Amino acid sequence: MLARLIALFVAVPVAELALLVWLGRRVGLVPTVALILVTGVLGAALARWQGLATLDRFRVAMAAGRPPHREVVDGVLILVAGAVLLTPGLLTDAAGFLLLVPAVRRRVRDRLVATVRRRLLAARGGDPAWAAQETVEAEFRVLGADGEGRPRGGDPTPPD
Question: Over 90: is that where the pLDDT of 22 sits?
Answer without folding.
Answer: yes
